[in-house]
Amino acid sequence: MTDNVLQIEGASKDRGNLRVLDAVSLSVAPGERVALLGHNGAGKSTLIKAILGLITLDGGRIDVAGATPGSAPARAATAFLPEAVSFHPALTGREQMTLFSRLAGARADVSALLERVGLADALDRRIGTYSKGMRQRLGLAQVLLGRPRVALLDEPTSGLDPISRQDLYDIIDELSGQGTAVLIASHALTEVEARTDRIAILRRGVLVADDTLAGLSARAGLPIRLRLRASADADAVAARTGGRRINGASVEILCSPTEKMDALRRVAAMGEAVADIDIAPPRLEDLYRHYAQEVPQ
Ligand SMILES: Nc1ncnc2c1ncn2[C@@H]1O[C@H](COP(=O)(O)OP(=O)(O)OP(=O)(O)O)[C@@H](O)[C@H]1O
């Protein structure tokens, strides 16, 4: 038995001679927010299509809320927000959502739902007049409508302004808070770094990483950066700490997590020669580069 509402085991898919998914195993528990990262063509959309039951696998299996992808119970349990979400342009937001609500057999308070996603002022406007961000918000309202057990979001924030992105992640948090397992395919590293629980990285169809940010960081062994600001003589600070002078007054020290405290003690021993210090652990951007980089064939 497993608690995972989405369970992917050894999923493989061939397109012609190309293996676009290669024995991918990944699971998402209720309430978990997992980011699915990878270069263009890495296989993210293919995996999402397989979870939706839109394509069949050549190997392995996927289980969605205890059902086979594409089956009626799996479809009822799943919501999908595509990257380029499209609706009937002649309908208003309220009409479109009422239609979806009826189709889903849900008795949703459509006005409250549209208000929740920030479309209160556009309820009775035709969707054809909506901006991309407004259509994306409408798509998210559709995801919220069915209280899904699994939500698949493909590049949900692409083309959105920074505030809309924050709003969208607030709603994703709400989904996860109500127990929905959320899988977000994205290229927006800074956002997913802050707003997801686990990071999965595909490289040419192979899942090369699946861990928390801290776990990825520990396994990658990438250095921590200590950036010092010298009070006066940056060259002297660089020489005494074994660091590298990076501009007029700044010195950078790269050290492993196990060397960090020793390095900090050396800095502290320098007293007022060091005016300030910043400690920067590896960012998701560094980790992504580490895990997703192409290895020479
Ligand atoms: N219908 C198809 N026929 C043939 N090859 C396909 C088809 N769909 C996808 N592919 C190939 O499968 C591989 C994975 O594509 P996929 O769309 O899953 O990548 P992705 O990670 O979603 O990329 P992106 O970030 O660009 O959206 C690519 O090599 C792509 O060319």
Describe the protein's architecture and organization.
The chain is α/β, with parallel strands linked by helices and 297 residues long. It has 2 domains: 6-218, P-loop containing nucleotide triphosphate hydrolases (Rossmann fold), CATH 3.40.50.300; 223-281. Helix content is 35%, strand content 27%. The protein contains 11 helices and 13 strands. The protein has helices at 44-52, 72-77, 93-103, 110-116, 132-145, 162-177, 189-195, 213-220, 234-241, 260-268, 284-292; strands spanning 6-15, 18-28, 33-37, 59-64, 78-81, 150-154, 181-185, 198-203, 206-211, 224-230, 244-245, 250-255, 274-280. Strands 5-6-7-3-8-9 form a 6-stranded mixed β-sheet, with helices on both faces. Strands 11-12-10-13 form a 4-stranded antiparallel β-sheet, with helices on one face. Strand 1 (6-15) and strand 2 (18-28) form a beta hairpin. Helix 3 runs parallel beside helix 5 (132-145), helix 5 (132-145) runs parallel beside helix 6 and helix 8 packs across helix 11 (284-292). It is globular and about 70 Å long. It starts with 5 loop residues before the first strand and ends in a 5-residue tail after the last helix. Residues 15, 18, 20, 38, 40-46 line the site of adenosine-5'-triphosphate (ATP).
